[in-house]
Specification:
single chain; 8 helices; alpha+beta; five-stranded mixed beta sheet; 353 residues
Length: 353
């Protein structure tokens, strides 16, 4: 059985949700807090409630021992889950899914001392086709954070774009060509709606960039010993044979990967467009991170050696008429690129914490 249908009542109407069997593992029963449980007892003479704590794990291991309290009539036993009262990370029940180029893909329990390196070893190690540099780690907590940041950024863009159009509308009266100005405003408003709708289609993935060195010969020992959380998903892909080039280039395509080839050399093959902005070129790495130019004297991105599966994006030059026209003219690049940059930034913050 690969998946199951779950009926959920929502305002009187059943909704069918698809949940894979892999996603269910580890989530069938909420793990109990084995370190703390209580007996609630009411004193008959004073009606006072007494709470008697005991260690559930030791009680189950040694019945009638010191941690097995003698019960009385009317006692209430309460066993808490790990979410009710948070337990230390080392004692939490953690299941992680690993798939792709490992010898035994599946869902594995992660115990104290385990990390991303030991997880790969539990899965039988990598296959000869594994491309460790592009290893992807997906986490629900990061996904929620990215979603919140994306919504905040969208609200900010909506406010700024509306303000820019409003300022342009106020200048219509002073224009020598009110009809032409009105047509221009309508065109900008249409572009605004299209750009913001495109931005709303972006979906956060919760990917964490692992920050490994850009090399094709990485081994399991080069993977960061990152501590894992319940529900994490690890994907190790096979090595691709192409590099993608998008944006202001003559040919948007996938170009065959060649070792030790720089961004500038790939752009020469694709051909830069007349409106290209080489200073703003972005290299989106296969590991989910992104590289942009940070120097006033030398564009390090153009001289960066490209890895298999990397994506090169050449933006258009900025048009500086108004803040909104600048946003509109670059909305395509913004919606395709900046979110990838947001993923990289979220990953770095997560790894530093």
């Amino acid at each position: 059985m690969k998946e199951r249908a779950v009926a959920v009542a929502q305002q009187g109407k059943p909704e069918i949700l698809e949940e894979t069997l892999v996603q269910r593992i580890g989530g069938l029963i909420e793990p109990a807090n084995m370190d703390y449980a209580v007996v609630e007892r009411i004193a008959r003479d004073t009606l006072r409630v007494d709470v008697i704590p005991f260690n559930l794990g030791r009680m189950l291991a040694s019945p009638k021992g010191a941690d097995d309290p003698i019960l009385q009539a009317g006692d209430v036993i309460t066993i808490f889950s790990a979410k009710d009262i948070r337990v230390p990370m080392s004692r939490r029940q953690v299941f992680v899914q690993v798939e792709g180029e490992v010898n035994n893909p599946g869902v594995y329990p992660v115990g104290p001392g385990d990390n991303l390196q030991t997880l790969i070893q539990k899965a039988g190690g990598t296959t000869p086709d594994a491309y460790l540099f592009a290893t992807a780690l997906f986490r629900e907590e990061v996904k929620r954070s990215q979603k919140n940041n994306l919504e905040k950024l969208l609200r900010k863009l909506e406010a700024e774009s509306s303000s820019a159009v409003s300022q342009l509308s106020q200048s219509t009266g002073a224009s020598s060509d009110p009809g032409g100005m009105q047509a221009r405003i309508q065109a900008i408003q249409q572009a605004q709606r299209q750009s913001l709708e495109r931005f709303r289609t972006l979906k956060p993935e919760g990917r964490i960039a692992l920050g490994m060195a850009p090399r094709t010969d990485l081994g399991t020992q080069d993977v960061p010993a990152l501590r894992l959380e319940n529900g994490d998903r690890v994907q190790i892909p096979s090595r691709p044979d192409f590099v993608h080039v998008y944006g202001s280039v003559n040919t948007e395509s996938a170009i065959i990967y060649k070792p030790r080839t720089t961004v500038a050399e790939y752009l020469k093959v694709a051909g830069m467009g007349t409106g290209a902005n080489p200073d703003g070129v972005i290299l989106v790495r296969a590991d989910g991170s992104a590289m942009t130019n940070q120097s006033l004297w030398r564009n390090d991105v153009l001289h960066a050696v490209v890895m298999p599966g990397d994506t090169i994006v050449m933006p258009e030059k900025f048009n500086r008429e108004t803040g909104w026209s600048q946003f509109v003219r670059n909305a395509k690049d913004f919606t395709q690129i900046m979110y990838q940059l947001g993923l990289g930034a979220a990953a770095v913050r997560t790894l530093r914490q």
